[in-house]
Amino acid sequence: MNEENHVSRKHPRAESIRIRERLTRHVKTRVLALAGLIAHGRGEAFDYILGEETTPSASKAITAAAAVLLLAERPVLSVNGNVAALCARELVELSRVTGAKLEVNLFHRLPGREEAIEEVLREAGAEEVLGVEGSALARIDEVFSDRRRVDPRGIYAADVVFVPLEDGDRTEGLIRMGKRVITVDLNPMSRTAQFANVTIVDNVVRAMPLLVREAERLRELCRNELRGIVDAFDNGEVLSEAMGTMELRLRALSEKGVYIEPRSRRA
Ligand code: PTJ
To answer: Which of 74-78, 87-91, 152-156, 261-265 is predicted with the least confidence, judged by mean pLDDT?
Structure first.
């Protein structure tokens, strides 16, 4: 039996269990760092409070992210173990729609991981994968982890970098280098969420297909229209709204003492 479907679809947490099992399997393939499981657990906790659905403010951030990527001259999608395990196909599609390059960039550069992630991306249809086979030859002094090793054709030269599920240090470093940073992070209080230019506070599993669709839709707009979307976007507002949603749900829960179904699941 497939590890990802031994639980019935009727189980109330079937999707969450399926994702956990996919991640566990990818520890074995080396795609996922062991710490990736901890990161996922933290994300799940925030998702639970958020209501496990894409909020209106996350949708706003998705639109802005698509516009920023389409306006970019040298956009790059930075791929770590968690996002490769969870949404390789959508990363490849986003790269195709926006013209962004795919680059493997890891916090835990352990032997065999780069190759395993490259394989997952190629299986998902990627034709070019940067940051592998010794090509991460440039060094970003502003970053203080293994993430500082980047591909000179990719993140090093990029004007816009998409860094889903990121640790705060690199986001700050990339911003200091004058790059625009887009992230997906369920924790609106993380340093990455706070420092990025566009923060999508949503589960990457829900956000990525929406981002691909939005980029496909916005591709029809002219550059001035795209610029209008970017200029009207306020990341601080989006973060406040995300925290407001969490606060509201926690308050309702604590006052009524009952579980509040997310909006999408209410009849
Ligand atoms: O593959 P590597 O070696 O590059 O390592 C990747 C991880 C994710 C382990 C590494 O970047 C890391 O340790 O990240 P942090 O500092 O734990 O930050 C990850 C952030 O992503 C946290 O704020 C989590 O709440 C958030 N997060 C976790 N899972 C999801 C998520 N956000 C959106 N969707 C998720 N599924």
So the answer is: 261-265
How distant is the alpha carbon of residue 103 from its chain centre?
Answer: 14
Asked whether the CA dihedral 44, 263, 5, 116 is positive or negative, the reply is: negative
Residue 247 CB coordination number (10 Å) = 11
Residue 22 CA to residue 14 CA, distance in Å, equals: 12
Instruction: Give residue ranges with CB within 6 A of ligand 1.
Output: 33, 35-36, 39-40, 42-43, 46, 80-82, 106-108, 165-167, 184-187, 190, 203-205
**Closest C-alpha to ligand 1, atom 31:** 43
Residue 147 CA: nearest ligand 1 atom is 4
Q: What percent of the chain has pLDDT over 90?
A: 81
Q: 3-class SS at 156?
A: coil
What was the pLDDT predicted at 170?
A: 87
